[in-house]
Each structure stands twice: as structure tokens, then as C-alpha cells.
Amino acid sequence: MSSSNDRVPDEELRPTETKGYKVGEKKSVAEYSQLDANDESLNRWKASLGITGEGGSAGDPSKPKLSLHSLALESTSAPGGKVQLDLSNLTQVQLDEVKKSPLTIKEGVEYNVAISFTVGQEVLSGLKYIHVVKRAGVTVDKLEQMIGSYGPREEPYVKRFATEEAPSGMLARSGNNTVRSRVIDDDNNVYADFTWVFKIAKEW
């Protein structure tokens, strides 16, 4: 079982600041659609966000800005290619249950974290995924990866992050790892924040 010492404090989830980097001005879908209509590279970027010269997809103000649907640990050796945590419409009670049901990773395998999400209202730019892993009260890993910029659409986006290698050995298999994950943007707006648990085993 994970202990109370495995709680990840907010300060450990702060993104790394890039010296000299200035956060750009946020714009609505309509404002983006009117930007430099004759700039071909900008038009390709806007098209990748689902924005067209006619105003594009304005999004639905009744929907959350970002909805996280799942987190998966993907590996070619895993049954079905991945083990997955369903995060759709979870209540606090269900989130607490997630902490009691560790995902299992086979020791020594290469895997990557992947998240599935939808954007509901407006273009979200500078999104990052950060997670901190604690074991027996000690921070053992931190992952910080760019997600990028995404516009509103019904179909979920899937973002896969850098490949990692699961630890091996009896010590690695002897306890659970508690992970606090967060999706954040350049302005430090938090769109998702949840805790989950995984364990290392001899087999999936």
C-alpha cells in the first residue's frame, strides 16, 4: 500500500521555467481565425488546430476547457499493447478508488505514458504534462513533457510521451509507486490534477 508520505506537494509539480521565454497573449478561436490570412505557414498551424478562415470551430462554452479521458502505459510487450486508467467523468469517490487499484508494469520493459483528452471551448496553447512519482515517501522520478497547442473538437486527441524503462529487481517489486499527474499551461492554469498508483511485477 502507498503511505501518506507518498503525497506529492504542489511545489514538486511546478513546471521548469525557460529563461527569457515570454508567454504569448491568449486569443479566442475567432481572433486566431482572422490572423494574417495570407501567411501560409500560419494557416497550416491554424488548420492543425481546426481553425479556418471562416471562424473555425468556436467550441462549446458549456463544456470544460479540457477533459482528460484516459492515461495509458503503452508497451509492445503488454497484453493488448497497454494498461489503461479510465479517467472519464470520475467522481471524487471514484478517484479515491483509483489510488487503491495499482496499474501493473512488467519489470525491465520499455513503455511510454499516453494521455487522451478533448478540448471544449477555446484554443489551449503551451500545454504541458507533469508527473512526480514517489515511493516510500521519496521522489524517484519526475516527467515533464510538452503537449502543445490544441483547438476545440469532439474527437479526442492522443499525446504520447518519451519512452521510459521500468526498473527491475526485488526492491523495485516490493512496493507501490504513487504518481500525481497534472496538465498545466504556460500561465500555470491547471486543467487536470489527479493521483494514481502503479506497481512493478514479474509479469503484466
Automatic annotation (TrEMBL):
InterPro entries: Ig_E-set, Rho_GDI, RhoGDI_dom_sf. Its main location: cytoplasm. Regulates the GDP/GTP exchange reaction of the Rho proteins by inhibiting the dissociation of GDP from them, and the subsequent binding of GTP to them. GO terms for cellular component: cytosol; membrane. SUPFAM superfamilies: E set domains. Residues 7-27 have a biased composition (Basic and acidic residues). Residues 1-27 are annotated as: Disordered. It is found in: Cytoplasm. Belongs to the Rho GDI family. Signal peptide: none annotated. GO terms for biological process: Rho protein signal transduction. Keywords: Cytoplasm. GO terms for molecular function: Rho GDP-dissociation inhibitor activity. The keyword Cytoplasm applies. Transmembrane segments: none annotated. Pfam families: Rho_GDI. PANTHER family: LD16419P, RHO GDP-DISSOCIATION INHIBITOR. The keyword Ligase does not apply. This is Rho GDP-dissociation inhibitor. It comes from the Eukaryota.
